Amino acid sequence: MLTFMVTQTGIAQKYNDALISQNSEINFSKTQKRGIKKNNIIYYVENDLQTISAYKRSKLQWQTNVISACGKPKLGEPEIRYIGYNSNKLLIVMGKHNFAEIDILNGNTTLVG
For 5-57, how does the pLDDT look when each residue is reduced to its tens digit (9 = 90+)? Predict the structure, then answer.
């Protein structure tokens, strides 16, 4: 019997505290902020503008590449333009008109429109 374990390493980075917002949303066209802190967890958009990482006490909890999970948007650049926090999920806008949701507990990413 063979057992395979897959782990993700590499692209996680230490976030910059100066780029963390206390607000519940970030519109990348209006601010340089890159992360949201809620309930002692930081949800941070990495430098590639496609990957979101969740950190608790500077330790990576989960990470998801929204473009890989949902596909390249039909219009606009393949990058995150907006992130919003909603009690149990992150709301994401990518490209021009594509929307995704991320479960804040495990990083499961779903294209919603």
Answer: 444 444 445 788 899 999 999 999 999 999 999 999 999 999 999 999 999 98
- b/e map 41-66, b = 16+ CB within 10 Å: bbbbbbeebbbbbbbeeeeebbbbbb
What is d(CA 51, CA 54) in angstroms, rounded to the nearest whole number?
10
pTM given for the model: 0.86
Return the closest-CA partner of residue 104 out of 84, 75, 79. 84
Listed in sequence order, the residues at least 6 apart from 68 whose beta carbon sits closer than 8 Å to its beta carbon are 50
Instruction: Provide the token pair at 51.
Output: 């990957």
Residue 41 CA to its chain's centroid (Å): 12
